[in-house]
Amino acid sequence: MGQPWPVILNGDEIYLRPLRFRDRTQWNHVRGENRAWLSPWEATVPPIDSQSALPSFFDMVRTLNSEARFGRSFSFAVWHQRNLVGQISLGGVIYGALRGGHIGYWIDKNYANKGFTTAAVEILSAYAFDVLELHRVEINLRPENAASRRVAEKAGYTFEGERPRYLHIDGDWRDHITFVKENSTLK
What is the distance between the alpha carbons of residues 52 and 54, in angstroms, rounded to a whole number? Predict the structure, then answer.
């Protein structure tokens, strides 16, 4: 199942690195500055009686790293030079007969439309196929998110279908469309 965690994945203009505790100030700043920009697309948790507050940054980093060590989910901060510009995750990883997962991402509005998100998807897809040897990776996005659709298409993902009320986003169950890429080298 891949290589030991943590890993750093390098591209031409960006690199992907797991979040570290010392990234807290920069992550909080970028997330705070982009709250309104990201909220229409952000996953939310439906109200449940036992629901507690969101985890702290440190709890989030511990959980993300634990999930990666167990091979279930791989989350990376997207870096351009020394700037945190986004985050991307390969989650829901299942091995065995399915060998698949799904990618989710966000980008700082100041770095949107520069190709960084597409590059991050391409880098993480290569990791999923070449290192983890997954067969299939999905990107699920809201139909009205034209920018995210362009990212999926430019990264070589093809439209597969619709998923009504698929994820809880921005406070309600939202329809999504699914884009898929398969590992052509895996038999």
Answer: 7
